Amino acid sequence: MQANYQAWQVASPVDSYFYFKITNIPPKGMLYLKFNFNMDRRNFVTQSVIATAATIAGTSIQSFGGILNVNDMTKTDATIAHYRPLTLAGLGGVAAGNGFHENPDQDVNAALDATWNAGIRYFDTSPWYGLGLSERRFGHFLRNKKREEYTLSTKVGRILIPDNNFELKDGLWKGKLNFNYKYDYSAAGVRKSVEDSLQRLGLPYLDIVYIHDLSPDNKDFKGKWLEYFEQAKNGAMPELTKMREEGLIKGWGLGVNTIEPAIKAMEVADPDIFLIATQYSLIKHEDALNKLFPICEKKGVSIVVGAPLNAGFLAGADRYDYSGTFPEGSKEKLSRLKEVAAKHNVDLRSAALQFCAAPKVISGVIPGAWKADQAANNAASFKAVIPKAFWDELKKEKLIAANAAVPSV
Questions:
Q1: Residue ranges making up the domain that contains 10
Q2: 21, 167: one domain
Q3: pLDDT 10s digit of each residue in the chain, 409 long?
Q4: CB 127 within 8 A of CB 94
Q5: 408 in a domain, yes or no?
Q6: Cα–Cα nearest to 50, from 90, 15, 7
Q7: d(Cα 197, Cα 138) in Å, to the nearest integer?
Q8: Does residue 268 share a domain with residue 209?
Q9: Alpha carbon distance 118, 124 (integer Å)
Q10: Within a domain: residue 409?
């Protein structure tokens, strides 16, 4: 059976990648390769990438249209890994679901447009965000974009049920909801959730599916999260693995606000990627850094950082994460971070986003935005130049862990 291949290049504010999709590869059916390359050496590395992919695909180099200089080939150090988003910078979908406050359609669409125009190509949403509203808004914006030019992730675990009168008292989602929800981490529930999401999005396929909120902090579980985890272990996890092998999705993992479920999932299944929110930021990062990252690196699993600004806390919002409470010491640490940032003339939001993007295990950082200027500022933050002395002082003052990765200047 002859393998088929597709190649494309993606550039964003923080990275530039060359991608290969190779299909008809037994036993999993397809293979994704992602290569980061230095822009000054684009021609050489691109040739090496194509040669590597051609070899894997069982295809002669000459069949790639004669675009290579075979005599210039040397071995590339690229490695085959689990699927990663097309760009490191991404956009989270909480604001599009009217998280914290109602956001007008035109403002959300403008934020999406600004994100796209900045070169960002990773979009994350969920049925839970606004009980379907975030997916509908994302899908409306993305419907006329070339599907292969962006990464789209959503989540499973909740099935939405039409309910004209449903309200979430003191909940995160504001405005009229029109839907209730029930938890379902079974194999059949996963299939239904994916199909429902595609209908809401109006798009032909998903790239990444996260099992959502399967975590000890989910108050709906009333302390019985391990019972739901067991259902997912026997249902959602093998079903998503099957969907990956069928080529229906490119990767799957968990989307959670604690690290324990991610570690446990790697013990019982074969995930590709995790969306870990609220656990890796300038304010809080030690547990993820020392307990989760090493295991992920060993298994080739990557991490997308959600809530890199602690739900706006590091960008000036009077809130911390999603709970409505400020952890002990968080405001004091923010004040000290601001002092160091002012001393070095550094924008703290830029530092926060770049800090989250620095570890090699990170494959995405997805701050939210509900207005165009927020999205543009987030994109600019990834490109800001931050002096080494700033990071050195943060470590000297023990504001970040000594072993935490920091951006190179």
A1: 4-72
A2: no
A3: 445 555 555 555 555 555 555 555 444 444 555 555 443 333 333 333 443 444 444 443 333 333 222 223 222 333 446 999 999 999 999 999 999 999 999 999 999 999 999 999 999 999 999 999 999 999 999 999 999 999 999 999 999 999 999 999 889 999 999 999 999 999 999 999 999 999 999 999 999 999 999 999 999 999 999 999 999 999 999 999 999 999 999 999 999 999 999 999 999 999 999 999 999 999 999 999 999 999 999 999 999 999 999 999 999 989 999 877 899 999 999 999 999 999 999 999 999 999 999 999 999 999 999 999 999 999 999 999 999 999 999 999 999 999 999 998 7
A4: no
A5: no
A6: 7
A7: 11
A8: yes
A9: 16
A10: no
Domains held by the chain: number: 2
pTM, full prediction: 0.83
**178 shares a domain with 65:** no
- 104 is written with which tokens? 């007008």
Structural domain includes residue 249: yes
Whole-number Cα distances in Å, 83 to 47, 151, 152, 338 = 21, 10, 12, 36
Question: Are 287 and 279 contacting, i.e. CB atoms less than 8 angstroms apart?
Answer: yes
Contacting residues for 400 by C-beta, under 8 A, at least 6 apart: 282, 285, 355, 391, 394, 406
Task: Let me know whether 112 and 228 are in one domain.
Answer: yes
Quick one: 186 and 135 in the same domain?
A: yes
Q: Where are the alpha helices (DSSP H) in 292-398?
A: 293-299, 330-343, 348-357, 372-383, 388-396
